[in-house]
Give the backbone structure.
Amino acid sequence: MIQLFHVKKSYPGDAPVLDDITLRVEKGEFVWLTGPSGAGKSTLLKLLFCAESPTSGQILVGGRNIGRITQGAVPYLRRNIGVVFQDFKLLDNRTVVENVGYALEVLGASDSEIRERSLKRLEQVGLKHKAASLPRRLSGGEQQRVAIARALVNEPTILLADEPTGNLDPSLTDSILQLLFDANARGTTVIVATHDRTLLSRYRRRTVALEKGKLVFDA
Amino acid sequence: MIAHVAWRLSRRAAVNLWRAPLPSLVSVLTISLSLFIGASFVLGLFAARALLTSWGAQAGVTLYLDKQTDDDKARLLAQQIRLQNPEVEVVYVDRAMALKRLRGDLGDMAGALDGLAQNPLPPSLEITPRVTLPPSGVRILAAQLGTVAGVSEVDYGREWLDKLEALARGLRVFGAGALFTVLGAALLVVANTIRLAVYARRDEIEIMKLVGATDGYVRAPFLMEGALQGLLGAAIALGAVVAVQKWLLPRASQAFAFAAGISAPNLAPEHWGALLGAGAVVGLFGSWLAVARFLKT
């Protein structure tokens, strides 16, 4: 599903952010991507959804070498990848259901289909009753659940989450992670970047650790 | 599918304009001001050209005849010229009339002519075109009439016409250059104004791209908004130009003597279309430039 071969990412004048990363993630796997701040976790996720390109090495997603695809093909790749961020990235001037439906709009779905599927996802994350609310009226945990609903609404094969619980009260962490485990149980490949080691011990899954841009642990 | 995507993008463009009225208003006003300046400039050029043409038309041709030409022969010559050139008026000025006019022109100094033994002035034919002729047309007419038998000299204010033509030529070159500069500056100002509006919505662009929107899909509502703002701006500029033509210029003509001869040509439907089209193009292109920068990131 996802393969990285000797991937390096560096910026001029700085030490490499990622150095010689070789990694394979199978379809339907759940992977913790961990390491201290600055280890290169976010950069690795950015490489996977083409927000950055590798300096060298090859990255295959679903059998496609994303280092070689044209800029015009990137949006189509992203439609198969849901992304969740620490800061939610919701549009404040749109309602919850509009935020979730955004991902379906670009696919050219009809208004009724967008509404129906968005409400279904909101129901799965327990927020159907807040469909007409604006994001600023929601708590941090609720906003992250909206972001997860948006990331999953077009049923992507891969879900990438960058510190999804980093901004949340610890009491909300479990419910957010449960949504990611549920998505994984439905067959979605999930990679979650986190620096919170307590999560890794509480929820034992395959763990890939980075340190100063190098892969130091994979088990 | 294309139809409802187009409808959705149009609806979004309209909603975005409605939700952010201040940046939209600034863009519309910037476009209207730029187009008003550009349109006023073009109309000014039209008016200046019309003024130069009318000055050229005032330049008549005088044919000086041989001194020995008698009245009958001169009148016959005048008649011949009328028949050959029905578009001109011909007035015969005999030698006595020419001297009388000279006396009138000299005024108090006319006494100086009393010492002359005989009238030194030749008879002449004054030719005035009935239709407005450009300076080049006057020059061709003079050259043609100069070959008529019995004509000793042709005067058509050659230096004056040459200067007028040079002025018209200079005005054309200056006008084209200045118009290009004004429109270029307008485009840059509009692009920067729209860029500020787009900058305020960079999060939206980022999220659209994140969920797999193509560049075209991201760009479309912004282009629609730009075109709509351009059309609105052009409509305001059009209203302002018409107001200046119909209201301000007539009052200025009454108030100031120097403005009495100033009149701008009326705007034809194609001018309206050109102005509205220019507004839409400036808005579209300005939006394109503004969004392009954010799509790169």
Summary: The interface with chain A takes residues 1, 4-5, 8, 19, 203-204, 206-215, 217 of chain B (CB under 8 Å). Residues 158-199 of chain B form the longest helix (42 residues). The radius of gyration of chain B is 31 Å.
